[in-house]
Design brief:
Length: 206
């Protein structure tokens, strides 16, 4: 299970199962490119995704807020800041992994802190596991939420907090929002009431 809205993802699913034991629930995994398409194409009924999909066919509820982090190799000079944190300008030149062209625009902006993290690795990734493979081999950096470190504690990967801007500075469009969202598509007529859930990534930070 992806880390979704942190510990709220499994808690929400289990609470629904207890409340509606007669309704089957099928958890599914999404990759980074499917946050919108899985909902609008009715592959899933509910998705825990980040950030809020920019699509009028999807309704979203904010669930939780978390601090943003970057994932770097333990050999990186920035790894020593794991206990103090870094500013956006400190991480802007990291070689962040590449997301495919068909990745939803709002998610790509989230990954790269708006347009501030401008450098890209040559390596692509569409799952957290692929991201961390590139991180621990020193080929790329990744970004995520604080709960990511709890769910994906890989040897060789170090998670560094991203510090918020000083008061009075204007942030870019939405580079570090930290809201988590649950996306829900409008029901399709004739569908079984049993939801298919995608307990994957959800969030943004401000």
């Amino acid at each position: 299970m992806g880390h979704g809205s942190a510990e709220l993802t499994p808690a929400a699913i289990n609470a629904y199962r207890r409340a509606r034991p007669d309704v089957p629930v099928e958890p599914l995994q999404l990759d980074f490119t499917e946050h919108v398409s899985a909902l609008v194409e009715h592959h899933v009924d509910i998705a825990f995704v980040r950030p809020a999909p920019d699509d009028e066919r999807i309704t979203c509820d904010s669930m939780i807020t978390e601090q943003r982090i970057v994932a770097v190799s333990q050999a990186s000079p920035l790894a020593d800041a794991h206990s103090t944190g870094l500013r956006i300008q400190d991480i802007a030149s990291l070689p962040f992994f590449r997301a495919p062209r068909h990745t939803p625009h709002v998610f790509a902006e989230h990954l790269y802190f708006g347009r501030e993290a401008h450098r890209r690795s040559t390596d692509f990734a569409v799952t957290p596991q692929e991201v961390l493979t590139h991180v621990v081999t020193g080929r790329a950096a990744g970004s995520g939420l604080k709960s990511f470190a709890r769910y994906y504690a890989w040897p060789g990967a170090v998670f560094v907090p991203v510090l918020r801007r000083p008061v009075g500075q204007h942030p870019p469009r939405h580079p570090h929002r930290r809201h988590q969202f649950r996306g829900q598509n409008l029901p399709r007529p004739g569908r079984s009431p049993g939801p298919r859930m995608a307990p994957f990534l959800t969030s943004e930070q401000k």
